[in-house]
Amino acid sequence: MRDVKSDQPTRSLSFQQLTALLRQIFLTHGTSPDVADVLAENCASAQRDGAHSHGIFRMPGYLSSLASGWVDGKAVPVVEDVGAAFVRVDACNGFAQPALAAARSLLVDKARSAGIAILAIRSSHHFAALWPDVEPFAEQGLVALSMVNSMTCVVPHGASRPLFGTNPIAFAA
């Protein structure tokens, strides 16, 4: 992040104000209200929690992915009840966070009844903080583990090209 010069005006926003502002930005750039709600909450949570690299810093990436059509901001996730402890969601080329939100209650029910539950999300895009994804499960007394794949960008020692992703992972209990 760039340094803010002391002669430039700044303004502090409450969490609720930031969430509302981000929601409006997402709506203006073509997301549905449901998608805007989830993304704004996730982005504002990261900013509030001090992870500025995953807070409002990510807004240009969100907006350019929407403008280019790479991500469908109006996608409606399709939740599939696959088995006793398995839920699958087709995010329909949308963001992963709304797909998770659509499956959360079913996933919690399965975890409580089977003792474990697994969620697989496909056809999605995720470049946000992961802990806002898992915290709601911990708040309900569950243990949660979340992982996403990432592009190869890490060059291993002695190599000349990237081989590994950044290993995004989060857990909550």
UniProtKB/TrEMBL annotation:
GO molecular function annotation: oxidoreductase activity
Cited Gene3D superfamilies: 1.10.1530.10, Hypothetical oxidoreductase yiak, domain 2
Signal peptide as annotated in the record: none
Transmembrane parts of this sequence: none
Keywords: Oxidoreductase
UniProt xrefs under InterPro entries: Mal/L-sulf/L-lact_DH-like_ah, Mal/L-sulf/L-lact_DH-like_NADP, Mal/L-sulfo/L-lacto_DH-like_sf, Malate/L-lactate_DH-like
Protein origin, superkingdom: Bacteria
Similarity remark: Belongs to the LDH2/MDH2 oxidoreductase family.
Name recorded for this polypeptide: Ureidoglycolate dehydrogenase
Protein's organism: Pseudomonas syringae pv. coriandricola
